[in-house]
Specification:
4-stranded antiparallel β-sheet; alpha+beta; 4 strands
């Protein structure tokens, strides 16, 4: 496959590329969730990776990918009340 990086766990990927979008070729799934993969590309710009993912699937239609944001989902200082 195209991934230029070795297989990493999702947690390792979060540590290596903080606050970035990461396009991952999924290599391991547990309980219906991606737990490991090979990084295809990473960028702070989601749009770049969406286009890259589309191109990747044209060449590898049966390969499962995952687009992951590694930063905080809820920005620091923002509080949610339920």
């Amino acid at each position: 496959m195209e991934g230029k990086f070795p297989e990493l766990t999702i947690e390792e990927i979060r540590k290596f590329w903080p606050n970035e979008w990461v396009l991952i070729e999924v290599t391991r799934v547990e309980n219906h969730q991606a737990v490991a993969g090979r990084v295809i590309e990473h960028s702070p710009d989601e749009g770049v990776l969406i286009r890259r993912e589309q191109n990747f699937h044209r060449q590898h239609s049966s390969t499962e990918t995952f687009l992951l944001w590694t930063g905080a989902v809820i920005p620091e200082g923002v509080y949610i009340q339920l």
